[in-house]
């Protein structure tokens, strides 16, 4: 009897311990067989939001937005792009066009409707590529929020400085390849430039760790492809309400980001000031203000 009790006790606690282990995020399979980890929180009948990270960033970096928006009644979806975070890491497909196809798989397989897509940095470029490539899926999207991404990163050598500044084209062609060829040494200063000096070292190291979940080789291929894209002809064809967000302390000069709103019919823009910690990662450094601005736009 005592032995039976001990066995029952052991089995019960083993099951309890197993139930307390964190569960792996669910997976969707892309058309070319790559597993993308995703998470959904908030009430199932809530207004839909889809957060798309930037180059080399993981979905978990949206956690301050996920917590807030799910608590105030939104249905919030995040996902790790291929090669990023906890998703599969194949050695192919590191092109914005392929990532746009992956985004379409997320939208269709999860059957997201009337969704607002919030894209940070390269996440904005994915959204522009998706809008360009998948017109049959446009009906799924209610609004866009584009966070601190220029429409052209690499300036044409034949442009004047004024022409480059208008669109916040901040790199010449050569430096893009230099960074890509030396990512092992370039990553830390590059990521640090995206924050204000007031970011805590613990926060910075945590974000850097998320970046390191992607290999340098895959990140370099994607960085080059992403950098040489030009989205200016897509912007005037966006037909849903859009909000363009920039920051006074961002690596991208804010005037060139705000310019995007002048190209999208009816779009609004907002620039986070230096006092609002308006860095490239303002959603991390000042989540209260960022969430407030996004909430007001989405609920408008």
Automatic annotation (TrEMBL):
This is AB hydrolase superfamily protein YdjP. Residues 1-17 form the signal peptide. PANTHER family: AB HYDROLASE SUPERFAMILY PROTEIN YCLE, MONOACYLGLYCEROL LIPASE. GO terms for molecular function: hydrolase activity. Keywords: Hydrolase, Signal. Pfam families: Abhydrolase_1. InterPro entries: AB_hydrolase_1 (IPR000073), AB_hydrolase_fold (IPR029058), AB_hydrolase_sf (IPR050266), Epox_hydrolase-like (IPR000639). Gene3D superfamilies: alpha/beta hydrolase (3.40.50.1820). Residues 49-287 form the AB hydrolase-1 domain. GO terms for cellular component: membrane. The keyword Nucleotidyltransferase does not apply.
């Amino acid at each position: 009897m005592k032995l039976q009790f001990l066995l029952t006790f052991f089995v019960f606690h083993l099951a309890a311990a197993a139930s307390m282990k964190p569960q792996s995020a669910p997976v969707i399979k892309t058309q070319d067989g790559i597993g993308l980890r995703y998470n959904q929180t908030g009430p199932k009948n809530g207004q839909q939001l889809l957060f798309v990270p930037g180059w080399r960033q993981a979905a978990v970096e949206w956690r301050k937005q996920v917590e807030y928006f799910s608590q105030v009644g939104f249905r919030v979806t995040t996902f790790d792009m291929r090669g990023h975070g906890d998703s599969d890491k194949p050695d192919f497909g590191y092109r914005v066009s392929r990532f746009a196809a992956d985004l379409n798989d997320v939208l269709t397989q999860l059957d997201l409707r009337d969704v607002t897509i919030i894209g940070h940095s390269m996440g904005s470029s994915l959204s522009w590529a998706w809008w360009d490539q998948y017109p049959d899926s446009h009906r799924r999207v209610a609004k866009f929020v584009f966070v601190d991404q220029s429409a052209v990163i690499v300036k044409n050598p034949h442009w004047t400085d004024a022409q480059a500044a208008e669109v916040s084209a901040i790199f010449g062609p050569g430096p893009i390849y230099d960074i890509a060829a030396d990512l092992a040494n370039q990553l830390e200063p590059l990521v640090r430039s995206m924050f204000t000096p007031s970011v805590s070292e613990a926060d910075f190291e945590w974000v850097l760790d998320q970046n390191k979940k992607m290999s340098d080789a895959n990140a370099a291929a994607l960085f080059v492809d992403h950098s040489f894209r030009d989205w200016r002809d897509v912007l005037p064809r966006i037909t849903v309400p859009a909000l363009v967000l920039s920051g006074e302390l961002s690596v991208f000069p804010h005037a060139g980001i705000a310019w995007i709103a002048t190209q999208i019919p009816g779009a609004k823009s907002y620039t986070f000031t230096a006092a609002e910690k308006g860095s490239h990662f303002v959603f991390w450094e000042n989540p209260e203000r960022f969430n407030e601005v996004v909430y007001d736009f989405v609920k408008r």
